[in-house]
Amino acid sequence: MDIQRANEIAASSVMVNVSYEGVPIYIQHVNEPNEMARIYPLNQPDKEQNVPLHTLKEF
């Protein structure tokens, strides 16, 4: 996923279908300089992690 689209999704009030390794996730924050995103699985909001943007897929 590119940085611009990840920022749009993170800022949106509308839920967008995004996955990380096949798991539906929520994007909390995008770290542009490092091209990373702070995410968590929709069914496990306590499992926050930082992942590379290129590993996120919009579906």
UniProtKB/TrEMBL annotation:
It is found in: Spore core. Signal peptide: none annotated. The keyword Protein biosynthesis does not apply. One of its GO terms (biological process) is asexual sporulation. It comes from the Bacteria. GO terms for cellular component: endospore-forming forespore. Its main location: other. Keywords: Sporulation. NCBIfam families: SASP_H. HAMAP family: SspH (MF_00667). Belongs to the SspH family. This is H-type small acid-soluble spore protein. It comes from Paenibacillus sp. SYP-B3998.
